[in-house]
Amino acid sequence: MGCGDGRILRQLRAAGWDAQGIDPDPVAVASARDAGLSVIEGTLDRTTFEPGSFHAVILNHVAEHLHHPAETLLTCRELLQPGGRLWLATPNLGSSGHSRFGRNWLHLDPPRHLVLFTRGSLSLLVQSVGFSGLRFRSSRTATLVYPASTAIELGEKPMEFIPPRKSVLHARLVDLLSSLRPRKAEELVLIADRD
Question: What angle do CA 7, 148, 181 make, to 5 degrees?
């Protein structure tokens, strides 16, 4: 869900999965389809998938854009076969980057990001709709988030900003430390099971 131009779908196909994508952006969907990928234009609530149709559902930076994340997660659970897996990545409101940059943190991203989670709040949400066996994985995205947040802090455009070497080295250190302190990583990566 939220497959964009299909980069992750291509990786899943290469790994042997039969992958189906969905995205609301017509330009991204056209790009994915041009690459020969099976992608539906729209949102999950407007599809006609049968319950239990999937072994896995991936929400890669989707949850933060949802008006009603619990409803979407419940739909994901219904679409999964018993024993199926949810894989979800989303910005971490408890990250060291949010602590450091505050209102200049890249992942606040108003008005596109509607809701942000900490590890605890995401756990509660996912469990409340019936998922179990929650596990978090660490990720290393500070090398992207810190320079962009620095640009915002300085009033620059993140995509045009060339960060100072010191900023890049600091971000690499933060990524390294997030392996030891995953609660402070820039994003949450959650895997959960449908019973």
Answer: 80
In the chain, the DSSP E strands lie at 21-23, 39-41, 54-60, 80-91, 131-137, 187-194
26 CB neighbour count, 10 Å cutoff: 10
**Cβ–Cβ under 8 Å, residues 148 and 91:** no
**Whole-angstrom distance, CA of residue 116 vs CA of residue 107:** 9
Model confidence pTM above 0.90: yes
Residue 163: pLDDT over 90: no
Burial 101-119 (b: 16+ CB within 10 A, else e): beebbbbbeeeebeebbeb
What is the set of domains in the chain, with CATH numbers? 49-194 (3.40.50.150)
Which amino acid is located at 111 in the chain?
P
